[in-house]
Amino acid sequence: MRNVTKDNITDVFMGYMGDDVNPRLREVMGSLVSHLHAFAKEVNLTHAEWEQGIAFLERTGDISDKERHEFVLLSDVLGLSSLVDMINTQSEGTSSSVLGPFHISGAPPLDIGGDMKGRFEGPVLLSEGIVKDTDGEPIEGATVDIWQTAPNGLYSSQDPDQDTYSFHGLQTTGPDGRYAFTSVKPVEYEVPTDGPIGEFFEACGRHAWRPSHLHFIVKADGFKSLVTEVFPDDDPYLDKDTVFGVRDDLVMSYQQMPAGSFPDGFALSGQVDEAYLRVDFDLVLVKG
Ligand code: BEZ
Ligand code: FE
Predict the structure, then answer these.
(1) Domain extent listing, the chain
(2) CA atoms of 127 and 252, how far apart (whole Å)
(3) Beta bridge partners of 181
(4) Pocket residues for ligand 1 (CB within 6 Å)?
(5) Looking at domain 75-285, which CATH architecture does it have?
(6) From 4, 162, 256, 288, which residue has the greatest number of CB atoms within 10 Å?
(7) pLDDT tens digits, residue range 111-131?
């Protein structure tokens, strides 16, 4: 097409694609570009605004590296990561939720009943549940990769004062499907605001807070992997998670357990005399 216009540019773009291009790529790319063109026309995008957008994306790329995934964070704060999760979630199982940029692979094995609290101060949290299928049958040999922030609201990869794998552990379920560990009560925290996403929050009048949560990746042979998080029902940010991760079935309640009631079978058994918190949360995997 020689005379490209505002009205035909999307069709011209589509016409430039090769005949043998992957049909899914054609569908995704065609839709993306037609929405992009429609957006620019709808808002009458100016040169200055286009330049600002390009510069923002460049800064997002500049700050990114192997450890800092600013584009993932951008996707998270735009709601895209959560939308993709919801589009692909199986309704019968536990809902999935954002992975976030702070998961690190290679977490050390954590015995059932093991402890992640270590030397850190803060309320003891005992967390346990069953990994099961949608018929309620326990799943043996499931791996549960667990991670959370330290009481200062930082993940180990953000905090030079923590060991690489502090507040990270990998449990493998036995025949009863049970996972169980102790930790510190998670805290709410702000996602990183020292880069372009901080500018985005500022410009949009938005806060950077996430409600407190525990992260899980659950895998088992013959089942779809589950990436999720659980949130306490009394968290002040439950209704305003800046990355849109909260789902009804991921909200749990802490039970306040009295002093002197800490059970046997945990690494901390015999060492916790004070009151502590307990949460029971089952993780349901879908076959596939
Ligand atoms: C997280 O929960 O670790 C997280 C998720 C999205 C963005 C930033 C952090
Ligand atoms: Fe998190």
Answers:
(1) 1-44, 75-285
(2) 11
(3) 114, 127
(4) 73, 76, 98, 100-102, 191, 210, 243
(5) Sandwich (2.60)
(6) 162
(7) 999 999 999 999 999 999 999
